[in-house]
Amino acid sequence: MPQLPAFDVMTATCPSRTSLVRIANKWTAMVVIALSSGRMRFRDLRATVDGISAKVLTETLRDLERDGLVTRHMYAEVPPRVEYELTALGRTLHAPLHALGSWAEDHITEVLAARESYDARQ
Amino acid sequence: MPQLPAFDVMTATCPSRTSLVRIANKWTAMVVIALSSGRMRFRDLRATVDGISAKVLTETLRDLERDGLVTRHMYAEVPPRVEYELTALGRTLHAPLHALGSWAEDHITEVLAARESYDARQ
DNA sequence: CTGTATCCGCTATGATACTG
DNA sequence: CAGTATCATAGCGGATACAG
């Protein structure tokens, strides 16, 4: 029997699980990766994170702001301008999420080959 | 204007996005972390990944197997025994996902404080 | 431009019962 | 034990319209 990892996130009732659920999410990952290059406007985020709707982007940013990962900067201009920026805490999350994005790109050939092989077998 | 990250996963139609979507997922993260300690039986995975249903665990393992991240070992015994193991490719995914789990645990205090502060403001 | 407000379908997930 | 099958439901997420 392999040694079990003593990982709190594995416990459904542990608070850290709620945090993992939020960060282990495609939209969160892409938004944080996008923001790693610096402060960005709402519309630029929407353009960068291809396919995200305004509603989902708004909700994702709100959740990130609530968790202390993102700061919201509003400008009283017309038309209005709002910029989002990673907090110090948010920047500590960049490396893990960026690693996930890099993994997806670095291994896509192997993954696609595996899928093809699997589907051919079934 | 900050420099935009030239990240394929940001493009909705890029194959690597489909891979990111799969790995940037709470269940995937927890199952891969659990399997990092070695080969495990279905029931032990269910017990380790607290709260996961048999159905979801089955589907998660199938998806991971299809992407070439997990190998399935069946034993013709009664009662049946099935073990799951990370492939070489799957093991390369452990570090990024483990980092995510560690992040959730290491920063849960800050996250909870941020949530409390945010909720109090609203 | 940056949202909010609906409406709503689809998918993810859970519960339960059943099979080999 | 390790699933599969079925059903029920919540919430994610898309489309659209509208507001400040």
From TrEMBL, chains A, B:
<keyword id="KW-0804">Transcription</keyword>
<dbReference type="InterPro" id="IPR036388">
    <property type="entry name" value="WH-like_DNA-bd_sf"/>
</dbReference>
<dbReference type="GO" id="GO:0003677">
    <property type="term" value="F:DNA binding"/>
</dbReference>
<dbReference type="InterPro" id="IPR036390">
    <property type="entry name" value="WH_DNA-bd_sf"/>
</dbReference>
<keyword id="KW-0805">Transcription regulation</keyword>
<feature type="domain" description="HTH hxlR-type">
    <location>
        <begin position="14"/>
        <end position="112"/>
    </location>
</feature>
<dbReference type="Pfam" id="PF01638">
    <property type="entry name" value="HxlR"/>
</dbReference>
<dbReference type="InterPro" id="IPR002577">
    <property type="entry name" value="HTH_HxlR"/>
</dbReference>
<keyword id="KW-0238">DNA-binding</keyword>
<protein>
    <submittedName>
        <fullName>Transcriptional regulator</fullName>
    </submittedName>
</protein>
